[in-house]
Write a structure and sequence with these properties.
This protein is mainly alpha-helical and about 190 residues long. It has helices at about 5-15, 20-30, 35-55, 60-75, 80-85, 90-100, 105-110, 125-140, 165-185. The chain has one domain. Helices cover about 65% and strands about 0% of the residues.
Amino acid sequence: MMDEARFWSLIAGAWPTMEQAITLRQMVFTGKLEDSDDLYRIQKQMIGNLTDALKHLDADELLTFDRILERKLYDIDRADIHEHTDGSDDGFLYCRGFIVSMGQEYYDLVKADPSHALMDVEFEEFCYHPHWLYEEQYGSMSPSDISRETGSNPNRMGRVDRTRDGDAAEHAHAADRLRRARSLLF
């Protein structure tokens, strides 16, 4: 059965384990990663590995994987994150795709504190890949009640008010996750 835990597990398992890939992923958490040919090659390997895993899913599981991805992209469709990633509407979608593709720790970190998002680092293919794979294997996909496209989340495109109760705790929790993720990577 596909759920968020399995979604994140499939993404984490798709990243290559060679030293260069691990180093590039570590650079995300230090804020030093920039778009490069090396990153592009590793992303192509990741999408190939993810494809191999997703091809084994039945139609319902693959549909659910895509809907979880769409929800994750929708939830970080926010002006405060866009400020840190830059890009056109399409570029911002691809930056959000990169954020999700890096895994749950990084996604949660950026969601809680957008200053951890990287400027102009994208992963376009990741944004639609499960959808395309579904259509290739099973035919047309039924429409969703949300959209992954930039600006589709009317409740999140405005500036986020960081004075609400719980934001400080959420930020502290994200910082703890970042420290834990760094310790696992380094």
